[in-house]
Design brief:
Blueprint lengths: L1 H15 L8 E2 L3 E7 L16 E7 L6 H5 L6 E3 L21 E3 L20 E3 L21 E3 L10 H6 L5 E3 L21 E3 L21 E3 L21 E3 L21 E3 L5 E2 L5 H9 L4 E2 L6 E3 L21
Parallel strand pairs: 2-3, 3-4, 4-5, 5-6, 6-7, 7-8, 8-9, 9-10, 10-11, 11-12, 12-14, 13-15
Antiparallel strand pairs: 1-2
The protein binds 2-acetamido-2-deoxy-beta-D-glucopyranose (2 copies).
């Protein structure tokens, strides 16, 4: 009888009672430790062993070890944003065999060690708004399953070709707001499943004609806020599923004849804040804008930067004679 009572009490303290690290909040399988200025180390004590989602944000935590995660065999999603992490150990995810998503947004990471993301279960990785200067193919295994990679808001001056060639399952790639000056012609060659590509907010000035020719599933392409001066006429050929193209805030003066041919009726385009030159070479874009005005956002803000006589006029509103098309 006493033995039974003891067993009952033992069971009660071990699984019946839900534990939770102090200052955090816990629901069935989710733990959140948020906005805790006094939290300086990983909250090891009290983490429920069945935790599948762990979110620790806006704390002073500056390091995390593999052993911290060993107590969480069911962990599926780990969100560590806006903390003070500077580096991570290469074996961090070694035993996190069910981890699907890792979000490290807004830390102070400069460099990451080889092998860090070799966990095969990892499908979504967010490294946004850190201080990463170099992305490294060695972070991943050859047979990784990554589908979502966000490296936006870092200090990358290039994306290594061998990194992207390894990420064969990638569907979403965000490298916006870095310092990219060009895109290697083979950079996107193995990304057959790429659906969303964000290259906005870099320093790209040219793109090769075949830059996207191996990405037939591309549906959204973000190229705004770069230094693009011209585009190759065949840049978008083969992109049957393209639904959205952002080209605003570049240095484009014309669009080449044929660039926008064959687009879907639901295609959406933004062209504002480019120095459009409204001369004879504007004919293709002028006709396209008039025939597809429903596909263009902010049509009235697509205006001429030159020649002087047409400055600030809306491109779509020009007449054939103003464009010098009547002989
Ligand atoms: C923890 O998960 C295991 C296996 O999924 C389950 O059998 C057990 O009841 C869970 N315990 C709690 C306290 O939720
Ligand atoms: C992973 O788990 C095994 C078995 O529990 C343990 O021996 C090993 O030290 C763990 N690895 C890391 C990196 O913590």
């Amino acid at each position: 009888m006493i033995l039974r009572l003891l067993l009952f009490l033992f069971a009660l303290t071990n699984c019946g009672v839900h534990t939770c690290p102090s200052q955090c909040s816990c629901s069935v399988a989710e733990v959140e430790c948020a906005d805790i200025a006094t939290m300086t180390s990983f909250p090891v004590d009290g983490l429920p062993p069945n935790t599948t989602v762990l979110a620790i944000w806006s704390t002073q935590i500056s390091s995390i070890e593999a052993s911290h995660l060993n107590a969480l065999p069911f962990l599926n999603r780990l969100q560590l944003y806006a903390n003070k992490l500077e580096k991570l150990p290469s074996d961090l995810l070694r035993n996190a065999s069910r981890l699907n998503s890792l979000d490290l947004t807004g830390n102070q990471i400069v460099r990451l060690p080889p092998g860090i993301f070799s966990q095969k279960s990892l499908r979504n990785l967010v490294l946004k708004n850190n201080r990463i200067e170099q992305a490294d193919a060695e972070w991943f295994d050859d047979n990784n399953n990554l589908i979502w990679l966000d490296l936006s808001g870092n200090r990358l001056s290039e994306i290594p070709v061998n990194l992207l060639q390894k990420l064969k399952h990638l569907e979403h790639l965000d490298v916006s707001d870095n310092n990219l000056e060009d895109l290697h012609p083979d950079a996107l060659k193995n990304l057959y499943h790429l659906d969303i590509l964000n290259l906005a907010g870099n320093k790209l000035s040219t793109l090769t004609p075949t830059a996207f020719s191996h990405n037939p599933k591309l549906s959204r392409l973000f190229l705004q806020e770069n230094h693009l001066r011209e585009l190759p006429p065949s840049l978008l050929s083969g992109l049957q599923h393209l639904q959205m193209l952002l080209l605003n805030q570049n240095q484009l003066q014309h669009l080449p004849t044929g660039l926008l041919d064959g687009r879907h009726s639901s295609f959406q385009l933004i062209l504002t804040a480019n120095p459009w030159v409204c001369d004879g070479k504007m004919e293709y874009l002028w006709r396209w804008l008039n025939e597809h005005s429903q596909n263009v956002f902010y049509l009235e803000e697509v205006t001429c930067a030159g020649p002087e006589a047409l400055k600030n006029r809306q491109v779509a509103s020009l007449t054939e004679s103003e464009l010098g098309l009547v002989r």
